[in-house]
Design a protein that fits this description.
Layout lengths: L5 H13 L4 H11 L3 H6 L1 H5 L2 H5 L4 E10 L5 E12 L5 E7 L5 H17 L6 E6 L8 H15 L8 E4 L6 H15 L20 H19 L8 E4 L4 H12 L3 E7 L2 E4 L6 H10 L5 H6 L5 E4 L10 E3 L9 H9 L4 E3 L8 H10 L2 E3 L1 H4 L2 H14 L6 H25 L6 H20 L3
Parallel strand pairs: 3-4, 3-5, 6-7, 6-10, 10-11, 11-12
Antiparallel strand pairs: 1-2, 2-4, 7-8, 8-9
Helix pairs in contact: 1-2, 2-6, 6-18, 7-8, 9-10, 9-16, 9-17, 10-11, 13-14, 16-17, 17-18
The structure holds NADPH dihydro-nicotinamide-adenine-dinucleotide phosphate.
Length: 449
């Protein structure tokens, strides 16, 4: 475990004791606290206002029953969550995750990270996160719809365009947002577009929202390479996952001249030395909702599938983890370092464990944490809220330009903050400190609330 500044150590112990068993939440908190020592020394007022202790305690946590009937008429019961973590900068904002692994500790880690990520965008959004242990995999459209309707039948009373604005995350895409929005509209009798983001383009969605997290991660990666006087062009890249973030990260890497040779899902990984065919991947994953192994069948011998293995064993110059938390641990970071990987940009939330991050730092691998690198998704959600509020819609080109500019700004702010606090080139410290200061200042200004 990291050695923390003595004031921060007490806060961490309190978090661990008040939130027993929530190991992902503890990990997210310690990662931020580990960066804040120099800030506490420079700004004793943050400690006096108990800003950090308050930040670690969500403003509100909601847990609810989600009953629904499957296609055979059997009653199913899931658990729903919404953790409204911090609204100092704006309405709570953050996605909903539907995955069997979801429990309060996962939602709290994601919500905590979201506070700093949203702050880094420079946009007026607070942090929150939600979801359910419902598994949409293998469920019919009708089952997913009934689940979403039941979920929203409770959630609707807690959200609103000025209160809390959920979006998608793992297991929640445009289909689920559609069913959720439909039920919200039905219950409230309000066409309140700004209550959810990630909507379809014909009913209030924003251009580029679907692509935003993946594209944004690669725009950030591009800035990292530029800062190191290098370029994405010609680089061999491995991306994990094959969901929303992964697909659009691959598309944008190819746009910049990099070659993504491997990607994965929870059943294994594929290697395609000529570069992943994104059109085919989209067809399999977005249209057919199939498995990654189907790609190999369609490529007739040009690609191979490795069942159950680690995609991080495939040699690469750049790694972009876009699947799930803690997918790169000590061993996986070891494979990457041994094979000469030089850059890692997190598309997923917290995919690298503390051990892996330390190994990267020791080996001189340039590493960017998700709260900075994948902030393009939520930034574009905030752009969707802006368009909804002004009853306007912007073109793809215009929105993409704004996203690229936001990612450049975040990158530069992270690096300049790292420099200011005596840790030049440290993206982890820069992101945590820059994200923290904006929220802390707002909390101080708003008084003890
Ligand atoms: P999706 O559900 O679209 O895709 C997730 C992908 O990761 C799937 O291919 C899934 O495979 C794979 N995966 C999940 N768990 C594992 C595992 N244990 N081992 C290997 N592969 C796994 O989710 P998103 O692409 O939306 O999200 C991915 C990550 O990015 C998450 O950490 C999310 O929090 C983060 N993120 C997402 C944003 C967004 O806008 N969507 C915004 C910011 C961050 P399978 O289908 O087999 O489960």
């Amino acid at each position: 475990m990291a050695v923390l500044h003595e004031k921060l150590q007490t806060i961490y112990e309190e978090v661990a004791q008040r939130n027993p068993g929530e190991k992902e939440f503890h990990q997210a908190v310690i990662e931020v606290l580990d960066s804040l020592g120099p800030v506490v020394d420079k700004h004793p007022d943050y400690a006096d206002g108990a800003i950090i202790r308050r930040l670690c305690e969500p403003e509100r946590q909601i847990i609810f029953r989600v009953p629904w009937a499957d296609d055979s008429g059997t009653t199913q019961i899931n658990r729903g969550f919404r953790v409204e973590f911090n609204s100092a900068l704006g309405p709570f904002k953050g996605g909903l995750r539907f995955h069997p692994s979801v429990y309060l500790g996962i939602v709290k880690f994601l919500g905590f990270e979201q506070i700093f990520k949203n702050s880094l965008t420079g946009l007026p959004i607070g942090g929150g996160k939600g979801g359910s242990d419902f598994d949409p995999k293998g469920r019919s459209d009708a089952e997913v719809m009934r689940f979403c309707q039941s979920f929203m039948t409770e959630l609707y009373r807690h959200i609103g365009e000025y209160t809390d604005v959920p979006a998608g995350d793992t297991g929640v895409g445009t289909r689920e947002i559609g069913y959720l929005f439909g039920q919200y509209k039905r219950i409230t009798n309000r066409y309140e577009s700004g209550v959810l983001t990630g909507k379809g383009l014909t009913w209030g969605g924003s251009q580029v929202r679907t692509e935003a997290t993946g594209y944004g991660t690669v725009f950030f990666l591009n800035e990292m390479l530029k800062a190191a006087s290098d370029t994405v062009e010609g680089k061999r890249v491995v991306v994990s996952g094959s969901g929303n973030v992964a697909i659009y990260a691959i598309e944008q890497i190819h746009e910049l001249g990099g070659i993504v040779v491997a990607c994965s899902d929870s059943s294994g990984y594929i290697v395609d030395e000529k570069g992943i065919d994104v059109g085919l991947l989209k067809e399999i994953k977005e249209v057919q909702r199939g498995r990654i192994a189907d790609y190999v069948e369609a490529r007739a011998g040009a690609a191979r599938f490795v069942e159950g293995g680690s995609v991080w064993e495939v040699p690469c110059d750049i790694a972009v983890p876009c699947a799930t938390q803690n997918e790169i641990n000590g061993d996986e970071s070891g494979y990457l370092i041994k094979n000469g990987c030089r850059f890692v940009a997190e598309g997923a939330n917290m995919p690298c464990s503390p051990d892996a991050i330390k190994n990267f730092a020791d080996a001189g691998v340039i590493f960017a944490p998700g709260k900075a690198a994948n902030a393009g998704g939520v930034a574009t959600s905030a752009l969707e809220m802006q368009q909804n509020a002004s009853r306007d819609s912007w073109t793809f080109v215009d929105t993409e330009k704004r996203l690229e500019e936001i990612m450049r700004r975040i990158h530069n702010r992270v690096l300049s903050t790292a420099e200011e606090y005596g840790q030049p080139g440290n993206y982890v410290a820069g992101a945590n400190i820059a994200g923290f200061i904006r929220v802390a200042d707002a909390m101080l200004a708003l008084g003890l609330v």
